[in-house]
């Protein structure tokens, strides 16, 4: 608890106000340090925002190096019999498929009603309690199910516990991971078991094998009839008479994934998806133009020296909207003339204009419809002639990709790879100056300046405490002297008055 200071009792002087005014003057250097700290923090944040923008461009650059950006394919089908999806490696052209058979999953169901249609049968009650309802009796012998699929042969042996219900037994079958689903339909009064994958994997027998002798499945549930389904898909390819079989209704040829939906003939056309390529290139150029404009504004924005950063004390005397408007002016010009950023912009512009000796048909951007704006106020922004770009992509998408993404050295390096190098170097320089969110202040230059300002502020605050103590001591001494003079004056006055009597 600090000592209460009361001055002016002897002199009548407002000591507190005088010392407060004196300390206001003494605090001026500290206020400037606080403003300096605020400005450094603003600068740090501005640099980090610039780095985030560069990172966005760098992320878009990843797409600009992929084949699928320039050579993505589009597949269209003549009817609903077949649908298709083309990868970037798909060969352009016409594909003809005639589907003669669709793949199907094997299934089997009870030959007849397992209870004779008795409505009182409860599939959730114990088998023992429902024993009298089964038309063929309750066979409690163990049974085995074998299945055949892409993972080979699987089997599982099941035991009948009469305390279990029919649905318990079917659930155990479903949970056995042998690739089948089983369920009881009360309306039909039958049980169905089906494979969870299509195709014929057992060429010499059934896809779902219930074993040779009578058991719960074949006797009680009547699953002894002929198996249905379990067929492979069949289709002829490109009118060649060459028949292809597939265990499922999906098949890939030459980078095209076909999905068979129904029996019939269908024609699939695969073409280069120019729209997708134009969109990706346009997005990248637009992001670059945004950076050019944003950084250009920051580099050319003049400082407003009439609006220094506000101190906390000054903010206390202002309204929120006043603070906002003031700081809008005070933040201007934080990156004015920055050499790292201006150098980066110059290098990026050069990268766009330079030739790329990749061996492709195109070696400069203007050949594919991308040129610099003729308006000097655009500061080197790029403009796209979409028709020319589309023609270039249709004519030779591979050469367009090489112009942007060729992996080489010197003049052989594609534009995007050159930009990546510049972005990487710039982001590293910015991080050395402004760090990133996870950086400690000692690891970057602006952070070290902030540490220095904090130390100076702490030292100066200690000095202010000493100055304030000195002022109170001096005014206290003055008050004491005045009090003594007042006491002496009163004493003399008292003696003088006594001598006159």
Automatic annotation (TrEMBL):
It comes from the Bacteria. It is found in: Secreted; Bacterial flagellum. It holds the Pfam family FliD_N. Residues 11-105 form the Flagellar hook-associated protein 2 N-terminal domain. The keyword Nucleotide-binding does not apply. Residues 230-487 form the Flagellar hook-associated protein 2 C-terminal domain. Keywords: Bacterial flagellum, Cell projection, Cilium, Coiled coil, Flagellum, Secreted. Homopentamer. Belongs to the FliD family. This is Flagellar hook-associated protein 2.
């Amino acid at each position: 608890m600090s000592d209460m200071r009361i001055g002016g009792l002897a002199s009548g002087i407002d000591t507190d106000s005088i010392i407060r005014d004196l300390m206001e003057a003494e605090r001026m250097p500290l206020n400037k340090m606080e403003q300096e700290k605020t400005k450094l923090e603003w600068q740090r944040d501005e640099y980090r925002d610039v780095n985030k923008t560069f990172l966005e461009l760098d992320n878009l650059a990843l797409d600009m190096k992929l084949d699928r950006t320039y050579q993505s394919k589009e597949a269209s089908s003549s009817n609903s019999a077949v649908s298709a999806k083309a990868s970037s490696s798909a060969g352009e052209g016409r594909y003809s498929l005639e589907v003669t058979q669709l793949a199907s999953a094997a299934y089997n169901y009870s030959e007849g009603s397992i209870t004779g249609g008795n409505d009182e049968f409860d599939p959730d009650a114990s088998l023992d309690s429902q024993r009298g309802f089964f038309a063929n009796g309750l066979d409690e012998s163990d049974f085995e199910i074998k299945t055949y699929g892409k993972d080979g042969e699987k089997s599982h042996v099941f035991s009948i516990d009469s305390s279990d219900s029919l649905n318990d037994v079917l659930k155990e079958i479903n949970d056995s991971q042998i690739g089948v689903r089983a369920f009881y339909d009360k309306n039909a009064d039958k049980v169905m078991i089906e494979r969870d994958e299509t195709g014929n994997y057992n060429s010499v027998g059934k896809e779902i094998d219930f074993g040779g002798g009578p058991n719960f499945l074949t006797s009680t549930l009547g699953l002894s009839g002929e198996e249905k389904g379990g067929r492979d898909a069949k289709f002829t390819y490109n009118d060649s008479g060459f028949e292809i079989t597939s265990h499922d209704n999906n098949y890939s040829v030459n980078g095209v994934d076909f999905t068979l939906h129904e029996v019939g003939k269908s024609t699939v056309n695969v073409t280069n998806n120019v729209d997708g390529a134009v969109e990706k290139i346009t997005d990248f150029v637009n992001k670059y133009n945004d950076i050019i404009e944003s950084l250009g504004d920051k580099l050319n924005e003049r400082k407003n020296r009439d609006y220094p950063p506000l101190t906390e004390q000054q903010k206390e005397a202002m309204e929120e909207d006043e603070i906002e408007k003031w700081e809008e002016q005070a933040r201007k010009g934080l990156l004015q003339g920055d050499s790292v950023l201006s150098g980066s912009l110059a290098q990026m512009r050069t990268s766009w204009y330079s030739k790329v000796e990749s061996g492709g048909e195109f070696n400069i951007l203007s050949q594919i419809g991308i040129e610099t704006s003729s308006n000097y106020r655009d500061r080197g922004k790029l403009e796209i002639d979409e028709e020319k770009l589309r023609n270039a992509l249709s004519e030779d998408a591979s050469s367009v990709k090489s112009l942007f993404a060729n992996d080489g050295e010197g003049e052989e390096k594609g534009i995007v790879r050159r930009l990546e190098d510049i972005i990487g170097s710039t982001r590293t320089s910015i991080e050395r100056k402004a760090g990133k969110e996870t950086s400690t202040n000692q690891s970057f230059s602006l952070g070290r300046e902030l540490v220095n300002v904090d130390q100076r502020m702490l030292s100066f605050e200690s000095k202010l405490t000493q100055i304030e103590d000195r002022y109170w001591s001096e005014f206290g001494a003055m008050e004491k002297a005045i009090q003594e003079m007042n006491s002496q004056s009163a004493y003399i006055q008292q003696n003088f008055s006594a001598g006159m009597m």
